[in-house]
Each structure stands twice: as structure tokens, then as C-alpha cells.
Amino acid sequence: MIPDFFIGIVMIVGTIIVYILSKKLYIKFPSPFLLPITVSLIVIIVVLSFLHIPYDTYMTGGSWLNHLLGPGVVALAYPLYEHRKILKKLAVPILVGTITGALIGILTGVGLASLADFNADILYSISPKSVTTPVAVSIIESIGGIQSLGAVFVMIAGVGGTMMSAFIFNASSITSPTSKSIGLGCASHVIGVTKAMESSQQQGAISTVTMILSAVFVSMTLPFILLLFI
Predict the structure, then answer these.
(1) pLDDT digit string (tens) for the chain, length 230 residues
(2) Which of the listed residues 67, 94, 111 is the one where a domain comes to its end?
């Protein structure tokens, strides 16, 4: 019987190797469809399925990485400090954009799920889909949703929003870097912030503030909004 510790180490090392290779692929071929997190996700799913490795076994190590999400989000405070003067000047558009985006994120998920006649568990789980994972999981736990399912919705929102962002911006004739950063942070949380960081630290800082404000706003208003649908 292999100890859980060694299984965890193998899963962590494997995940890191897959991500590094995916990142190199993205650098060589910078396509929205080759985002490192997307490619890594697909590769890991294929490998686990091919080798018949249960999800619980993978999460022996994956859960350790999952615990780093919180500290990872906190580490984003550094670019906020570096660009605090710019952020103060853009306080109004960031705040208005965040509130608008957060409401749209909630209403699109819950509204479409409600129209499809999904049960309450699904509505609770999808409602915070545009909020960063640690916060979304806490929200889902407090309102009685399914945490594992909610994490999937969060991942889909993050990856899907980031992949489609360039097409959406072009179709909507959005050229302002600030507007793009607000949209990415509000709709695609940490993954969107990472995409914004590719442009500049300043855009990453704007996206980070948006992500944080969105998480706060959704946490405070979501229970009341859900009353309209359930």
C-alpha cells in the first residue's frame, strides 16, 4: 500500500510538470485556446481517465495545491500597492464596472439555470461562478449549494471568459485597456487577472481590484438576489 504522502507528491509534481509544459506551448503559440490552465486541465483529465486514476486519488496531492489559492490571491496585493495612485484615479469607473459586471454574472448564471428549470442546488452552486474559487466555495457552503459542482462552474467561467475575451472585446469595439481589465477581473476572476497581467502590471492591478470588489459585492448581495428566483 503506497502512503498517501507519496501519492500526493507524485500528483503535485505531475501537475506542475504539465503546467510548465503547457506554459511553454502557450509562449510559442500564444492563442486564447492554448491558455496554460486550459491545456493543463485537459491533459490531466485525459491522463487520469486513461490510467483509471480516481479523482479522490488525484486530490490527495491536488488538495495541497488547492490550499495555496488563498495565499495566491493575497499575493496579488503587491501590484495593488505599486499602482495605488492610478487605482485611486480610476476608483469610480472600477466601482461602477464591478457592480455592473457582478450583477450580470449572477443574473446570467442563475437566470439561465432557472429558465432551464434546474433545481435549487444547481442555482446555489452556479450563482457565484464569476467569483474567485476560495470565496465562491465559502459562499456556496453558506447558502447550501454543492461545493464541488460550484468549483466546476467557477473554472468554466474563468477559462471560458478568458478564452473568449479577445473575441468579445473585438465584437463590442472595446479598446480601453482599463475596460478590458475590469471585464476580465469581474467575469473570470484569477484567470482573468492573469490574462490582464500579460499586458502590464497596471492592468493586472486594475483587474485584481475588480476581482476583490466583485467577491465582496457578490458575497453581500447574492442571498437577496437568489430570493427572486427561488
Answers:
(1) 556 677 778 888 888 899 999 989 988 888 878 888 888 888 988 988 888 888 777 777 767 776 776 677 677 677 778 888 888 899 999 999 999 999 998 888 888 888 888 888 888 888 888 888 888 888 888 888 888 888 888 888 888 888 888 888 988 888 899 999 999 999 888 888 888 888 888 888 899 899 989 988 998 888 888 887 76
(2) 67
Separation between Cα atoms, residue 191 and residue 168, nearest integer Å: 16
Write the CB contacts of 60 (distance below 8 Å, at least 6 apart in sequence): 4, 7, 8, 11
Residue 50, judged by CB atoms within 10 A of its CB (0-12, 13-18, 19+), counts as exposed
The domain total for the chain is 2
Angstrom distance (rounded) from CA 180 to CA 166? 9
Q: 460550484: which residue's cell?
A: 150
In a domain, 74, yes or no: no
- 101 and 204 inside one domain: yes
Whole-model pTM: value is 0.78
